[in-house]
Amino acid sequence: MYVHDMNPFAIQFSENFGIRWYGLSYMIGFICAYLLIRWLAFRQRAGLNPNVVGDFITYTAIGTLLGGRLGYVFLYAPDLLWKFKGEFPFWGVLAVNEGGMASHGGMVGIVVACLLFARRHGVNFLYLLDLVSVAGPVGVFFGRIANFINGELVGRPAPADFPWGVKFPQDILTWPSVDFSQLRSLGDVADLVHVPRDQWFSMLEKFQNDGDIRNQVYDVLSKIVSEVQNGNGAVKAALAPLLTSRYPSQLFAALGEGVFLFIVLFFLWRKGRKPGFIAASFIILYSLVRIGDEYFRMPDLQIGFQWLGLTRGQWLSVGMFFVGIAMMFLWMRSNSLNIPGWSRGHSIRLGRK
Question: What is the largest CA-CA distance in the chain?
Fold first, then answer.
């Protein structure tokens, strides 16, 4: 089984400061979206001036970041709203490293960004939604790859004979709250990071009643993960037998929510479609793919499984599916002219919708 040992830093300047793959993934995603949307705007000539695509990407980038973070806070961890500490970034909402972003919230942020841009520039709102819908899976692809590099959004336990199972060292960070007794198995591993076994066991005995000791335990766990990421083979070898083999759910999502959706939506837009068709197709297809992906992904620790054994992400996607069906029915009944497909060179200018 592969033991995940990838470093979240692409370039590291100090222990906690550097350029992370997560940030780079967003930058690459926005660059690819800019190039694709500019090409479509030039090819289709449907009302979006290619020269203002950069401004449009800025709108959507802000919408993605704000919507994604606020979506995570309100949908998955509302306790971050009243979590404050004396060091940067001070407020839990701004601590993106705690939980990250929610894709459903990011989509809402993008819709708001498209609406604001459409009103300011007199562009068809639904056409803008179509553009971001066909470009969005490209960004999702890079984002899910970054999730894998970070060892976050890990998969559910995989069968012993599953050939692509991955063991994530980050699992040990959850043990204090989900499987405290498992921490005792880390005696030899702690010794390798200069915490003697006896000292480690003593810390565990005091964990529940001493806040300082509790912080020290988490520091040791973080140190173990960091050592694996920095190539400490001895720590990696000692830790490997203690970890659970999991599905690489992030890579499944990269292929499904990223590659698959992009290919389908890009192919659908070869010929002219009514404004909103691509966006509605994205909503429907994304929700179905996400529901399937979630069967391989662990639910958020603080939420767990919900009604009928589904995750929060699956229930949000069920609602999203019905919204997509309603939007498809509504938008396809409009009298709007078709937007040219990317394979055709003629132009039709659309008014504001």
Answer: 76
